[in-house]
Amino acid sequence: MELVNLATIRAAARRIAGIAVKTPLVSAPFPGVAGYGTGKEIWLKAESLQPIGAFKIRGAANKILQLTPEEIARGVITYSSGNHAQGVAYAARAVGAKYGVPGDRSSSTGCKAVIVMPSNAPAIKRAATLALGAEVVDVGVASSERLAKAEELVRAHGYIVIPPYDDEQIIAGQATCGLEIVESLPDVDLVLAPVSGGGLLSGVAAAVKQVRPQAKVIGVEPELAGDTAESFRTGRVVEWPAELTSRTIADGLRTQSVGLRNFAHIQKFVDGIVTVTEAEIRAAMRAIVSTARLVPEPSGAVAVAALLFHAAELPSYRKAVAVVSGGNVDPALLADVLTETAP
Q1: Do 125 and 119 meet the contact criterion of CB atoms below 8 Å apart?
Q2: CA 107, CA 70: separation in Å to the nearest integer?
């Protein structure tokens, strides 16, 4: 399987420049972990500041921007628990406007976007997807159900599929996040990114390792949805049932198995995968808010959780970057996390 190269990643960065933004690195001197007197620096890659509040806009835009006008006119479809849904809806509207394609709603211009979402998707992500003009189709909680429904609708309507992670152009788009990290911090030693289907981790790792091979890249996953960690240990893709992966608060990391293309990149470029507990994820959310003044969703806090609670499992570093992959958190959940008594 051919892996995404640096030229493809750089081309993606140029391509998506008008839709995705170059997010900043925000200093996070977590007390006792990094900052004054520790000899360590921790920076947060604030993907929560993307127009849709998550990194997913990168891959979606890179894929959709390469469709022909005829394909744009057919409309696009994806299957997502929320952030990729918003990325596809946002990019479809922007790209459709470029080609002058009528939108699905009379109030907007764009390419028709159909999103198959699980019934347990956060209400805030579902509402945001609808607000971007997409049509939402609800199914059960399993990843397999979303895929099956999307395939059914493709057969019926001829939509173009924009996969959430297992696709070369999606990986290249997400890789632009890693490219920005090494451009902003050329001497970075350690990069940590969340992993579920593997789009972000595979892309970030491919970019970082091809620009700065000596840097270490670590994936981070909830213990309750640790299929990729098991896959990494065993050297083969394993699948966890939906009733297991749906237990985690990190709704963006509930995919049942890592993608095949993504796993090939992970095996080549990733140095290890760490799993974190639910309590650690919640504590990391509080730490990010109080230290960096960013608002993370649970999925966006797992990389920081690894830095705070699993230092013994990480390579040594002087400068580390943790990707805060998204900030689309339900306000009630955020309030609950911020006001609870820490264990």
Answers
A1: no
A2: 22
| Residue partners of 70: CB distance under 8 A and separation at least 6 | none
Q: How far is the C-alpha of 9 from the C-alpha of 237, rounded, in Å?
A: 25
Question: Which residue, among 212, 199, 202, 190, has the nearest Cα to 303 in the 3D structure?
Answer: 190
Which is catalytic among the residues 56, 63, 112, 149? 56
Q: How far apart are CA 41 and CA 27, in angstroms?
A: 8
Confirm whether 143 is a catalytic residue: no
8 Å CB contact between 281 and 310? no
Beta strands 41-46 and 319-324 are parallel
Please tell me the distance from the alpha carbon of residue 55 to that of residue 48, in angstroms, as a whole number: 7
> Is 257 a residue of the active site?
no
Each residue's pLDDT tens digit, 217-258:
999 999 999 999 999 999 999 999 989 999 999 999 998 999
Starting at the edge strand that comes first in sequence, how are the strands of the sheet with 319-324 ordered? 25-27, 41-46, 319-324, 190-194, 216-222, 272-276
pTM above 0.85, yes or no: yes
Tell me the helices (H) and strands (E) count for the chain, helix number first: 14, 10
Contact between 228 and 198 under an 8 Å Cβ cutoff? The reply is yes
pLDDT averaged over every residue in the chain:
93
The tokens describing 310, both together, are: 């699993």
Domains present along the chain, CATH in parentheses: 6-54+167-339 (3.40.50.1100), 57-161 (3.40.50.1100)
DSSP state of 215: S
Total number of residues shown for the chain: 343
Q: Facing residues of 194 across strands?
A: 220
251-308 confidence digits (pLDDT tens)? 999 989 999 999 999 999 999 999 999 999 999 999 999 999 999 999 999 999 999 9
Q: Which of 29, 24, 25 is nearest to 307 (CA)?
A: 29
Tokens standing for residue 118: 């699980």
Residue 220, H or E segment: strand 216-222
